[in-house]
Design brief:
With 116 residues, this protein is of the alpha+beta class. The protein has a domain at 30-95. The chain is built from two helices and three strands, in the order βββαα.
Length: 116
């Protein structure tokens, strides 16, 4: 994580530190507006995909395009880093509403005017 080292992960005095150099030359970018989380006793699994109709009701087919498998320690560090990033975003831009239906502004249909 590039968010810095949380205090509980800092080495004790006298211990060696590890410098991590990130090489993202072979990284691929993807987009997801859907995430399913499942787990086993050893791993946490994130299935990511694109929901083509996020405002639809009823059955919607979503194709999973990426699967990320993490151990629970890495997942907890990711949760912490995401939480900090989202807090900073909300402080700067306001609260994020996660319920899509509450974000959609529905325009009422025009009312008919009587003729004559």
């Amino acid at each position: 994580m590039s968010e810095g080292t949380p205090s509980e992960n800092r080495p004790a005095e006298g211990q060696q530190t590890q410098e991590i150099v990130v090489n993202d030359a072979n990284a691929t970018a993807g987009y997801a507006n859907f995430c399913r989380v499942s787990s086993t006793p050893e791993e946490l699994i994130l299935d990511l995909g694109l929901n083509p109709t996020p405002y639809a009701t009823g059955k919607v087919d979503v194709s999973v395009t990426q699967r990320i498998i993490l151990n629970h320690y890495t997942a907890k560090r990711l949760w912490s880093a995401l939480s900090m990033a989202l807090q900073r975003h909300e402080q700067a831009f306001g609260v994020l509403e996660t319920d899509v239906r509450k974000r959609v502004k529905v325009t009422p249909p025009p009312t008919a005017t009587p003729e004559g």
